[in-house]
Fold this protein.
Amino acid sequence: MNTLEKKSPSQRLTPPLEHSNIVLRDTRAQDFDTYVRWRAPGTAWKEWDAPWEHMSPLLEDERKKWVRSARVRNEANPRTHLEIETPGGVHIGFVSAYWTEDWTDTAQDWLSIGLVIAESTYWSRGYGRAALEGWTNYLFSSGDCLRLAYSTWSGNERMVRLGLALGFLEEARFRRAREVQDVRYDALRFGLLRQEWEAQPWSKARLEP
């Protein structure tokens, strides 16, 4: 079956999933050390992912709690967090999703999503696009949501271009709402409806378990 269809819980795709040049997989206990590095002060990816929000370092005494939380996430169906890995096994980032509760009364139909390529040497090489395509395909085909959405800011031009290239539409613009390094930028919201996703040629790509 080449076309991804909505599936019952027993039929849903189970990670790891291959899409284009990336693999989406569950979190492993050893990923903790990678996240310690990614959440260290001065990490390059945080300059683009909501840089106005404070990110606390991940400490060694949090390991057991972090691993327990990861195991719980790995049991969710569909998943709300997956790691991004190259076919060669390099862990380069993660994708996430959560139900939006503060924008609509039908929160169960609306997922907000996130994408981070934390390893800067893998930027601008197609990995972000492959990950967002695969994640979007997975969420629409494995769940009942009617729409996906993500937030960014006008200074993050790569994320703006990526969403538009995949058919996401700019649905909201809050002018001069974000301040980054003493410069004001617009806060942006992009969305994609299920029927718009179905019209995209890449939505027919097969996710290989």
Notes: The longest helix spans residues 127-142. The two ends are 13 Å apart (CA to CA). Confidence is low (pLDDT under 50) at residues 1-10. The domain at 17-204 is CATH 3.40.630.30 (Aminopeptidase).
